[in-house]
User: Which sequence fits this backbone?
């Protein structure tokens, strides 16, 4: 993990019109709170000393999944080359929570950003070996050109933010 | 093809050119341009394509074993694998799963079972929607393009962008009529928002989600879905039951084999570096089931949410059910077919469609069969629906080879089209008019071949006869009644100018000026004048057109080579087989390839270079001969043969003096249109470089093709399509610029469209210019 990898990740996300913020673990909760439009739902963050803002609902009900404007999830890793985040299908609902609300806030540890797709597949294989064998590579915003022009936010989020935990 | 069917085909194509062509061209050509740009910006593209190709070759080779592997893996995960022999088998299984789930499901109170689907060409192939609906099951397509087709009751016109042929205005009209909104829909944003909300509700209430699979990893039971909208994710994760329907050829051995495909599929399909969502699921997944009928229940079901968030222990929630339906439907037979096997490597990215000039003009409703469209469709249709399904559109592949560099798994799509054309030729019943072409067509084909095809496939003999009787043959051919007969019998469109055959062939001219001995003297004089020491000898391959019709470019080639110090021989050589190949006459081409090699063997032994003017003939020697000649012969001829301007470039690079040629003023603009097959051989650049070295500033065309493609544009049923494609090229070329083109038919087409002379670049460069 080098600073250049984060820079590469940031440039890729810029091209996808996805915001990236580098924050310390201590500041993460506040920054997430600022970005999350309410009502917000989320998955508990597995990083040491990083909590979701108090206003974020975990273990949402089906109605809350539908009503939420923001979904906050950790991601297993990120691929700098393409601006990709790896959303793992977990029992606490990371897959639907990252998919249904119109805004997805993905939280990733800086040490989990890998330079390219080849390194991404190494991480993917490690996860498969550990039983995390359902993963979505999500890159940018849901899009379609089927209605004649490019439109974002079709079945998935039209707005994506990535929070990089610089000390994790 | 009989007269009435030619006319029907012409009508059908004209209709598509007018109705669907403009929208298809806009989207397909834009995707193709993005693909080219992305390919160009990918450093390891060739390695990636080669790797993807070899993984597919190995996977198809091991297919029976992979089927057993995936069965074990999916069953261990807690899912079920069903191998369906054919469409009816697959449909019956899926119908049964849906009915069972609807009866057992928590929302069993619903009026009729419901299915939501993400885009899948394989389910189009088996007409799954019709089968489900016939059983009283509601089916909703959730890919926006597929949903538009479902509402409009139409079929896909492109394997990736199924509703590519329908404009935004037409979609707005359709939605406004169907849903009668308070304020009429107009913009793409409004239409998309409405579709998202409407489909979102249907997905939330569905009993079963049906998806396809772009790839299936055998040893982990992982299905991969590649989408930009996110609908496949929703269909897979929302209903409790997920059915994935995939052709058996989608199996890859391991996760690491998936990597190059994830990396390349979006690049080839749309020119994106990667798609928005590459969903790799090993179902049943750990994701909680979503029950929107119980809105107040936590989706994670309390204790289901492991504290560490992984939920990684054991199979997914017991509420989830997963079925993988692997479809054979002819694929295992394709695997045994040496010529069609390659089709199974196809990843259905649509790059062959996007790169194809004819496809851009008519779309998949013209260039497509029952299910599949574009160049590779010939292989798919022949394999899964039978070759009659490929017969209707197979001719639209002109063998231009634009798709060869586009295909991410390096499938020789033109060859598959040639093979199927050959098989179709052989399956036809003997028709009338054989007597008319029999005398002119000394081919190796059995009877029953379309007379037009036989005529064009044997064009060398036809040209020889016409030349021998010129100018009488030309006067005759131009006469109205004769054109009517040619159109009726051979399908030659009477709007086309026919080639004017010359009484004196190039070979005659060369012999008349002293032959090889005189050429050696001329070259030696030039050598001593220029002071360069060019120690080469060339044999000029005289293609039919250069020998009998466009003799000037042959003379220009001879004069240019001599002026650069290279002695030339111009023997009477057999045909290359290109004409036969373009008509699907492989046996004839095979015989011609052997004859040509035999005729050139002594020259090759003597170290003479074979120099070719017509790019399509060189392409036959460099591409198809690999399949027609023993490997040593193929390599020998390939390594010893050159396109004329490529050869001149090599001479100039090795010290030949360009001032011996007709040079421009240093920046003299000239429009240059290369040739499709020449581009595929990477031989556009040498011509451009030679023109630059000689003081010209070539402006290179970017259009896919001239549209003529040898005999294609002469045929009555394709004349208008040929002109439509050609117009796009003509529009690129600035008024007033001199125009040069490497291919004979490209030149003919441009002369018709631009109404001025179009020469071969060698005529511009030859000393003394294009004199006769």
Assistant:
């Amino acid at each position: 993990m080098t600073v250049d990898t984060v820079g590469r990740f940031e440039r890729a996300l810029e091209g996808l019109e996805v915001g990236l913020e580098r924050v310390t673990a201590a500041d993460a909760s506040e920054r997430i709170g600022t970005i999350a439009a309410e009502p917000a739902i989320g998955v508990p963050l597995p990083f040491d000393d990083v909590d979701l803002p108090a206003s974020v609902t975990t273990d949402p009900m089906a109605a809350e999944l539908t009503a939420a404007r923001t979904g906050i999830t950790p991601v297993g890793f990120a691929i700098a080359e393409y601006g990709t985040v790896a959303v793992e299908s977990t029992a606490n609902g990371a897959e639907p929570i990252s998919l249904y609300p119109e805004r997805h806030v993905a939280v990733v540890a800086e040490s989990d950003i890998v330079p390219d797709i080849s390194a991404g597949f190494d991480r993917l294989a490690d996860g498969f070996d550990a039983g995390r064998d359902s993963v979505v590579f999500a890159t940018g915003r849901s899009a379609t050109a089927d209605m004649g022009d490019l439109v974002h936010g079709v079945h998935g989020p039209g707005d994506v933010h990535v929070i990089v935990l610089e000390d994790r | 093809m009989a007269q009435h069917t030619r006319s029907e085909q012409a009508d059908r194509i004209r209709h598509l050119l007018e109705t669907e062509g403009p929208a298809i061209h806009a989207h397909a050509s834009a995707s193709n341009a993005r693909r080219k740009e992305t390919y160009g910006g990918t450093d390891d593209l060739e390695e990636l394509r080669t790797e993807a190709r070899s993984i597919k070759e190995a996977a198809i080779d091991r297919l029976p074993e992979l089927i057993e592997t995936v069965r074990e893996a999916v069953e261990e995960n807690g899912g079920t694998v069903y191998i369906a022999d054919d469409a009816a088998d697959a449909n019956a299984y899926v119908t049964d799963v849906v009915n069972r789930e609807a009866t057992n499901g928590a929302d069993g109170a619903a009026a009729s079972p419901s299915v939501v689907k993400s885009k899948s060409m394989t389910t189009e192939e088996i007409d799954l929607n019709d089968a489900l609906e016939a059983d009283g099951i509601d089916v909703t397509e959730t890919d926006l393009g597929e949903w538009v087709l479902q509402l409009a009751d139409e079929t896909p016109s492109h394997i990736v962008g199924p509703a590519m042929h329908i404009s935004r205005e037409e979609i707005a009209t359709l939605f406004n009529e169907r849903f009668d909104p308070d304020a009429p829909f107009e913009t793409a944003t409004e239409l998309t928002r409405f579709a998202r909300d409407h489909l979102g509700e249907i997905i939330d209430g569905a009993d079963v989600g049906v998806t396809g699979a772009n790839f299936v990893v055998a040893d982990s039971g992982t299905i991969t879905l590649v989408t930009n909208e996110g609908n496949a994710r929703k269909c897979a994760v929302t209903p409790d039951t997920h059915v994935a329907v995939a052709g058996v050829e989608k199996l890859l051995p391991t996760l690491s084999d998936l990597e190059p495909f994830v990396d390349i599929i979006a690049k080839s399909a749309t020119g994106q570096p990667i798609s928005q969502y590459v969903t790799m699921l090993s179902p049943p997944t750990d994701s909680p089931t979503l029950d929107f009928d119980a809105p107040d229940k936590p989706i994670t079901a309390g204790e289901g949410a492991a504290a560490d968030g992984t939920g990684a222990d054991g199979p997914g929630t017991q509420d989830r059910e997963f079925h993988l339906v692997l479809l054979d439907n002819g694929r295992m037979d394709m695997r045994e077919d040496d010529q069609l096997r390659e089709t199974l490597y196809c990843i259905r990215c649509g790059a062959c469609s996007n790169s194809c000039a004819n496809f851009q003009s008519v779309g998949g409703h013209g260039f497509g069969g029952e299910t599949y469209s574009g160049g590779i469709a010939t292989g798919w249709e022949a394999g899964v629906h039978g070759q009659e399904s490929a017969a209707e559109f197979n001719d639209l592949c002109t063998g231009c080879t634009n798709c060869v560099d586009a295909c991410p798994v390096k499938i020789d799509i033109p060859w598959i089209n040639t093979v199927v054309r050959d098989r179709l030729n052989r399956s036809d019943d003997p028709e009338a008019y054989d007597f008319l072409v029999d005398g002119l067509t000394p081919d190796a084909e059995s009877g029953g071949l379309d007379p037009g095809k036989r005529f064009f496939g044997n064009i060398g003999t036809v040209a020889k006869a016409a030349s021998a009787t010129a100018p009488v043959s030309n006067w005759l051919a131009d006469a109205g009644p004769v054109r009517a007969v040619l159109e009726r019998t051979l399908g030659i469109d009477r709007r086309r100018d026919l080639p004017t055959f010359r009484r004196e062939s190039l070979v005659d001219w060369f012999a008349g000026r002293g032959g090889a001995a005189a050429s050696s003297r001329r070259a030696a004089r030039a050598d001593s004048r220029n002071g360069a020491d060019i120690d080469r000898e060339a044999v000029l391959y005289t293609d039919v057109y250069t020998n009998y019709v466009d003799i000037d470019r042959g003379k220009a080639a001879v004069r240019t080579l001599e002026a650069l110090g290279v002695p030339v021989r111009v023997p009477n050589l057999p045909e290359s087989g290109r004409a036969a190949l373009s008509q699907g006459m492989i046996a004839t081409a095979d015989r011609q390839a052997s004859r040509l090699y035999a005729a050139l063997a002594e020259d090759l032994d003597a170290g003479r270079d074979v120099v070719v003017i017509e790019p399509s003939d060189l392409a036959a020697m460099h591409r198809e001969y690999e399949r027609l000649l023993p490997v040593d012969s193929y390599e020998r001829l390939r390594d010893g043969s050159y396109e004329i301007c490529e050869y001149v470039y090599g001479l100039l690079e090795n010290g030949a003096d360009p001032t011996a040629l007709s040079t421009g003023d240093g920046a003299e603009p000239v429009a240059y249109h290369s040739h499709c097959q020449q581009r595929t051989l990477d031989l556009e650049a040498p011509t451009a470089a030679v023109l630059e070295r000689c003081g010209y500033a070539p402006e290179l065309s970017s259009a896919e093709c001239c549209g003529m493609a040898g005999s294609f544009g002469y045929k009555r049923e394709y004349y208008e399509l040929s002109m439509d494609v050609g117009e796009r090229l003509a529009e690129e070329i600035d008024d007033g610029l001199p125009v040069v083109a490497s291919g004979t038919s490209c030149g003919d087409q441009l002369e018709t469209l631009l109404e001025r002379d179009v020469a071969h670049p060698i005529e511009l460069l030859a000393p003394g210019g294009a004199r006769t």
